[in-house]
Each structure stands twice: as C-alpha cells, then as structure tokens.
Write a structure and sequence with these properties.
Radius of gyration: 47 Å
Structural class: alpha+beta
CATH class of the largest domain: Alpha Beta
Shape: elongated
Strand content: 15-25%
Helix content: 40-55%
CATH architecture of the largest domain: 2-Layer Sandwich
Distance between the termini: 33 Å
Number of strands: 17
Length: 601
C-alpha cells in the first residue's frame, strides 16, 4: 500500500512537471498535423478498401452465378441428348428386332450408329455406353472424337469399375435420371424402358460427362485459380483436387443460403461457393480465386499510404532540428542561467550571439535583470526575512483549533450568503472533521451514525478534490446506526484506501459496507479497487505486528495500526483490523468488533 502511494505521488509529480518546449512542439507537430493526416489517410484507405472488398465479392459472386448457369445449361444439353435415346425410338426398335431375330450384329450396328450420331461430337460428353440388362457383359459404347476426346482408358475404367455400381443405382431410378460420381468421373445415368412391357427398363444409357468442358466457363472469373463441383457433399469433379475443400462450417452456411464467400487471410485465396438443387440432390460449386489479383488495386493503395508516411518522416526530422537549434537551445541556456539565479548565483550573464531578434532581446533582458537583482538583493534581503518572520509569528499567535473552527464557521456563512454552496459544503465537512478531532466532550465511544458522519465529511472533501475520478458507495444496515463504537476507527481506514489502495488519478472506486455477522460481531468493510501485491501484504503484516519501529512510519500508516491496537485492547484479540484481497483482486479492509461496548468504557 505504501509503495502504491509512492508510485501515485511520482505519477502526480510527473504530470505536474513542466514539459520540455522541444517535446511540446514535437507533440503538437505529431498530434496537430502528422497524426490527423495519418488518421485521415487511414480512414480514406479503410473506406476505399472496404468498398473494394465489397465490389470484389460482388464481382466474384456474379461471375460464379453466370458460370454456374452456363454449366447447368451444358448439363441440361447432355440431359436432352440422353432423352433422345428414348424419344427417337431407334434403340427401342433395334432391341425389338433383336428379340425377334436374335441378330446381335445387326443390333450392335444399329445401337453404335445411333450413339455415334448423338454423342460422338458432343463436347460435354467424353464417352457414351449402353448396358443391355439381359446381356450386361456385352459392350456397346462410343468415344468423343472432337476437341475433348475420350479414350479407351475411359471405356475400360467404366466396365471394370463403374458398371456394377451404376447398375445398382439404376434399379431404383425408374424413368428418371441422376448423376453418379466415381473416382473423379461423373456419369449421367438414364434407364431406357419398354413401352410394350409396362415401361419396364430393358437397358441403361450412361454418358460420362467431360469436366474440362463443364468447368471451362469458370476460367473467365476474375483471378480464377481452380474450380470444383460437389454432389451431395462429395467431390464430383475438380481441376486441382488437393486444393479444394468443403468444410463443415461452409456446409452449415450453405444450408441457410445459396451463396457463401470465404475471404481467408491477407495472402490466402478467396473461396466462393454456390448451392443449387439438381436431379433430386444438391450440387455445390466451389471456385478458388487468387486474392493477389483481385486485391491488386487495394494493395497498391496501401503501398502508397506507406510511402506517404515514409516521406513525412524527413520533414518531421527537419522541423525538429529547426526547433532544437533556433528555439530549444536558447531557451535551455536561459533556463540554466535562471536555475543559477535561483540557487543564489546572482548577476550571472549568458552569452548573447543569437541571430534572431526575439531571443537576442530576451537574453539581453535576462542579463540586465540578473545584474539588477544582484544590486538590490543585499538591500532588501534582511528586510524581507524580518517581515516574513513577523507575519509567521502573528499567524501562529492567532491560529489554534478553537479559533480555526470559529473562523471556518464565519467563512461558511459568508459562502452561503453568496450562494457558493460547494465551498460551504467543503467548509462544513472540514469543520465536522475538526470538531470530531477536538473531541470537546472527551468521549471514547459514540454511535455508528456519528462515526460515519465523520468519515462522510472526509469522503466529501475527497470527492470534491478528485471529482468523477472518485466514486464511493455505502451499504449500511440502518438498524446498527445507534450501536456504540470507538471514535475515529473508520476514517483512518478510508484515508488509507484513498491514499495507498487505489490509483485515484485514473479511477478510484470505494465501497463501505456495515452489517452484523451471524456470530454477532459488527463488521465494517472498506473495499477499494487497488491491487494488493505481495509487497503490500508483507508491509501490512509488519505494520500490524506487535514489534515494530514506528519512528520512520507515515501518519496514515500509524493511523491504521492505531485502529487495530485500540480495537484489540477494547474488545480482545479476536477483534481488530484485517486487510485482505478478494476474488476481484480488490483490497478489503475489515474492522471487526462487538456490538456491545465493554462495561469498562
């Protein structure tokens, strides 16, 4: 607590200390010009960047929406092409002829010719396969021969890996269609039904979609890096599979909205997502965009801002040098000479070689003043000392506690007559404290109400001194106001909390609580928002111990020791003053005494 008070006094001394002119000018330069300019530039940059980010997001999402529409159109084109196998009846007629004459070669030729006509030059299809359900081992297929060619590897993969799974899915497909993703390959599956046999499927048409063609439209998005398509939460096709991801958080967001954009870190890529329903499932398109490309303009603006700040630094340095050479250095010489005069070295002269009129006249005036002081000091020094001693003796002869109390009462009435109630209140508080200290009735005990009135007078003066920086609340059990307690036990504890327990220059909070415990003891707690350090704890233990050298202790410290010793002597060792810390890291000073004063009082 004592170290805290010393720290507070040092802070107060620093705040009251005269500021260096050089640093005052530097502060005005920084806070009056450089800092406002910096803040203005920063605000402009912030709003421009925010607007730029919004425009970038809007551009990306608009481009993603358009590209997705194009991809859906391509998928719809494949869907239309697959429907031709049913609506044109070519395969159906070949199949009916095959059932009649069992000419497999004729059936193969008719099926393959139809597949070539419909799908061999469709850029959105890589391969087309027909699976006849009563002969699934027989292969009927065609490969795309245009720009995005299919390969025999695609055909082998289908019959070796994908066919069985597709046949299993087709069993529940009826006359509808769906998409199936198998190891980065996407298949559009459709049943071909026999109208003469109650629409029972007789074959399955499978089109392997071309990811390169379907994802080609996304390359036009600004800053495009890669794209991926998810079907019911699983990756269906991607350009760079290892770079794509669909996190659980994004999935949850996409359940509530159709579009989501994830900015990532400063140098991380932007990920944009779009959800759309398709064929009874959910398709999610994810696009990765290079932030270095989309935010190049914002980055350039930030670099320009940094360059402006760097160019301001030489200007600030030049201005500081000018003030130092032309203002600070001459003033330091004058200040040093003034200190010499203050130390008693009258008549000291400063070298006057200034090249500006103002400081030349100032130094010349100082030299003249110093010399004149030296000439007059010997004549007036003894006279002034004698006059001062006479005034002090006159004051000492008149000021005593009773005279001071009566004088305060007169000043109080004068303040009230002039309407200065704030001054009147402070005088009344001081008069209350003075009257309580004088103890004209010479009583050892008085009521809790009288004790709190004395403490309130002190708190009123403190609140007027520090204003809004100091707050005090009281929680007093009014049933205990008539209980007799020793005089002057609360105010020293409150003063200790104000002086040592809190940094009142920032924000001081004090709470006084008075209540009766369940065991019958009267408890008065004074809680302040100061932190009780280990050093404070050691000093308090030492101060409240029996053996201590009191000659070096301050008045407030002696006051709290006095309270503790008096309570122990009156009520016994189980009562006294206890200072601890609570869960909020506040300091709590607890006065513990009995509700009934001893009969020996």
């Amino acid at each position: 607590m004592m170290e805290t008070r010393g720290f507070t006094e040092r802070i107060r001394e620093k705040l009251n200390r005269r500021k260096s002119l050089r640093w005052s000018m530097v502060r005005r330069l920084l806070f009056g010009w450089l800092f406002p300019l910096f803040m203005l530039t920063f605000i402009i940059l912030f709003f421009v960047a925010a607007n730029g980010h919004e425009q970038v997001e809007q551009t990306i999402m608009t481009s993603l929406e358009k590209s997705t529409e194009i991809m859906c159109m391509q998928i719809k084109d494949c869907e239309t092409a697959s429907k031709n196998a049913s609506y044109m009846h070519v395969i159906s007629e070949c199949y009916q002829s095959y059932l009649a004459d069992e000419n497999k070669e004729k059936f193969r030729k008719g099926v393959v010719n139809f597949l070539e006509q419909q799908y061999q030059y469709n850029d959105n299809c890589r391969t087309a396969e027909l699976i006849v359900l009563n002969d699934p081992a027989e292969r009927y297929y065609v490969m795309n021969v245009s720009r995005n060619k299919g390969t025999y590897r695609d055909i082998e993969f289908f019959y070796r890996t994908a066919q069985d799974r597709i046949l299993q899915i087709a069993q529940d497909l009826d006359t509808g269609m769906t998409l199936v993703g198998i190891e980065d390959r996407v298949y559009m599956v459709r049943n071909l039904v026999n109208a003469n046999a109650k629409f029972k499927p007789y074959a399955v048409l499978v089109l392997e979609l071309n990811p390169s063609s379907l994802l080609e439209s996304y390359a036009g998005i600004w800053g495009y890096e890669s794209a991926a398509v998810y079907w019911n939460g699983e990756l269906m096709m991607a350009q760079h599979k290892e770079e794509q991801y669909l996190s659980e958080q994004v999935k949850e967001q996409l359940e509530k909205q159709e579009e989501v954009i994830v900015q990532g870190g400063r140098w991380e890529s932007i990920h944009a997502y779009r959800r759309l329903p398709l064929y009874g499932g959910t398709m999610i398109v994810a696009v990765c965009v290079d932030k270095k490309v989309t935010h190049a303009g914002i980055t350039s603006l930030e670099a320009l801002f940094v360059i402006m700040i760097l160019f301001m630094i030489p200007l600030v340095i030049q201005m500081m040098r000018f003030f130092h050479q032309k203002v600070t250095r001459p003033l330091r010489q004058l200040a040093a000479a003034s200190n010499e005069v203050r130390e008693g070295n009258l008549g000291i002269q400063v070298e006057n070689t200034e090249d500006n009129e103002e400081f030349y006249q100032m130094k010349d005036s100082f030299n003249h003043m110093s010399q004149r002081l030296k000439n007059q000091f010997d004549r007036i020094y003894l006279e002034e000392i004698a006059l001062r001693d006479a005034k002090i003796m006159a004051l000492q002869s008149q000021i005593n506690p009773h005279f001071l109390n009566n004088t305060l009462e007169i000043i109080n009435w004068e303040a009230r007559l002039n309407g200065n109630y704030k001054v009147s209140g402070m005088i009344e508080a001081l008069s209350t404290m003075l009257g309580e200290t004088m103890n004209r009735k010479e009583q050892q005990f008085h009521t809790v109400a009288e004790e709190m009135a004395y403490a309130d007078a002190y708190l009123y003066i403190i609140s007027q001194r520090f204003g809004a920086k100091f707050q005090c609340t009281q929680k007093i059990d009014e049933k205990l106001l008539d209980v007799q307690v020793p005089r002057l036990i609360v105010q020293p504890i409150v003063e200790n909390a104000v002086e040592h327990g809190m940094d009142i220059t920032k924000r001081g909070q004090l709470e006084i609580r008075l209540f009766q415990r369940e065991d019958g003891y009267l408890c008065i707690e004074v809680e302040d928002n100061g932190h009780l350090t280990k050093e404070d704890r050691d000093k308090i233990d030492r101060l409240l111990s029996q053996d201590i050298e009191l000659s070096g202790e301050k008045r407030v410290s002696l006051g709290i020791r006095n309270v503790d010793q008096r309570l122990k002597m009156i009520y016994g060792s189980d009562c006294g003053l206890f200072i601890t810390g609570n869960d909020q890291e506040h300091t709590v000073s607890t006065i513990l005494l009995k509700t009934h004063a001893p009969t020996e009082q």
